[in-house]
Write a structure and sequence with these properties.
Low-confidence stretches: 1-5, 22-29
Structural class: alpha/beta
Oligomer: single chain
Order of helices and strands: HHHHHEEEHEHEHEHHEHEHEHEH
CATH superfamily of the largest domain: Aldolase class I
Strand content: 5-15%
Number of helices: 14
Number of domains: 2
Bound molecules: flavin mononucleotide
Radius of gyration: 22 Å
Strand order of the largest sheet: 3-10-9-8-7-6-5-4
Distance between the termini: 52 Å
Largest sheet: 8 strands, parallel
Shape: globular
Length: 400
């Protein structure tokens, strides 16, 4: 038998070629990353943001640049990562029901939220400590939010002051609040943020405490030598800019209750949104307490190990809210189809966390812009495939 025509051998030979150091070396010399021809869906190691085909390519690129401890901080979930995985798995439990033969040449992906118009329903979720991912911290993200006219929610533990981030964004951002046990500290931050012009404050309520095993392990193993963020002892992070001049209490936040939220409402004219709602009961209470919006979130799998994804929590919250206030959802959004599913289940907008941190870590502002562009492009594709011409048309008829 002529072995050169044996398909098994041909496969083996191609596999050898694809992984051979000679071919890999040559492909690098030509400036092209090697492609695994047997796994066309494997993320590629790109060297330019413009070469990213999906957001996972930016994840691969970011891995080359992050310090190991920072990577762990970004990627980890709580406990053994159950909710983290559930967030992605959850999307598979819903399927699309696309309609055919609808002229979808012209699409409108814009939405309105609190009287503001945005080109897409995609928002930037608050993520702390961004100097861990880029030397300029939150600034490249703010600049990308500006060029893409995207709403950015700034974390309480931002590496930079809210005023500087607003300068880079070109308009006030939303602010995410971690309450402090010391009322004067919480009050001081709320007043500062309000004075800076932030129109909306999102109070995060899903982290009374959390068990971050991966982070604990890496903190012990790492010896970060980055004095910009860490004090000389490994893992000790000095006071963040938003706490300067205030006394920060590093206790758990299990004291937080609706009474405390009411107290915050009483001292501010900003719109107050609650981040971390995952049940209909709490959605009802949010309405009773005069809250202006909710974010269905499990902190990207970093809060409790519930086993339930936010896409699975969304429907009960949407039902309870019944159109009275906006519902935003985050945790695990990586694809246009994920966004479409959330919109079909009744969300008004979605937010992303890690994907833009991958963009930030790999290519700075351009990386974040690329993530936003990719998700918009993918959303447009699924809208065309489904025959939905604008966001309002995406409803429960398009999903099972
Ligand atoms: C590195 C990192 C830091 C975060 N920091 C905060 C924070 O300071 N405040 C907050 O409310 N949520 C924080 N989150 C949660 C995000 O706002 C958001 O809920 C989550 O990242 C969404 O899930 P995704 O990363 O899968 O998109 C953080 C998430 C990550 C990954």
């Amino acid at each position: 038998m002529n072995k050169s025509f044996d398909p098994t051998n041909r496969r083996a030979f191609l596999r050898y070629l694809a992984t051979s150091p000679a071919i890999l070396g040559a492909s690098r010399l030509w400036g092209q990353p090697a492609i695994d021809i047997f796994d066309p869906y494997a993320p590629q190691l790109i060297t330019r943001a413009q070469d990213a085909i999906n957001v996972f390519d930016l994840h691969e690129a970011a891995k080359q640049k992050y310090l190991p401890g920072h990577y762990t901080y970004m990627s980890m979930g709580t406990d053994g990562g159950g909710t983290l995985r559930a967030n992605r798995e959850g999307f598979k439990k819903y399927q699309l029901r696309p309609r055919r033969l609808i002229n979808s040449r012209t699409l409108d992906t814009s939405i309105e939220l609190f009287g503001q118009r945005y080109p897409t329903p995609i928002m930037i979720a608050p993520c702390g400590h961004q100097k861990a991912f880029h030397s300029e911290g939150e600034i490249p993200v703010a600049r990308a939010a500006r060029t893409r006219d995207t709403e950015m929610v700034l974390s309480s533990v931002t590496s930079l002051a809210v005023e500087d981030v607003i300068d880079a964004r070109g308009k006030p951002v939303w602010y995410q609040l971690y309450v402090d046990e010391k009322w004067e500290t919480t009050r001081g931050i709320v007043k500062r943020v309000e004075a800076a012009g932030c129109p909306v404050m999102a109070i995060t309520v899903d982290l009374p405490i959390s068990n971050r095993e991966a982070d604990m392990r890496h903190r012990r193993a790492d010896n970060p030598n980055c004095q910009g963020c860490h004090a000389p002892n490994a893992g000790v992070i000095p006071l963040k800019p938003m706490y300067r001049g205030l006394e920060r209490t590093f206790s758990d936040r299990s004291f937080l209750d609706w009474e405390y939220v009411d107290r915050i409402r009483d001292i501010t004219d900003m719109k107050v949104v609650i981040k971390g709602i995952v049940t209909s009961e709490d959605a009802e209470l949010a309405i009773e307490h005069g809250i202006d919006g909710v974010i269905v979130s499990n902190h990207g799998g970093r809060a409790e190990d519930s086993g339930r994804s936010t896409i699975e929590s969304l429907a009960e919250v949407v039902d309870a809210i019944n159109g009275r206030i906006p519902v935003i959802v985050d945790s695990g959004f990586r694809r246009g189809t994920d966004i479409f599913k959330a919109l079909a289940l009744g969300a008004d907008a979605i937010a992303i966390g890690r994907p833009y941190l991958w963009g930030l870590g790999s290519f700075g502002q351009e990386g974040v812009e690329t993530v936003l562009d990719i998700l918009k492009r993918e959303l447009e594709i699924v809208m065309k495939q489904s025959g939905t011409l604008n966001i309002a048309e995406i409803n429960s008829n398009y999903i099972i």
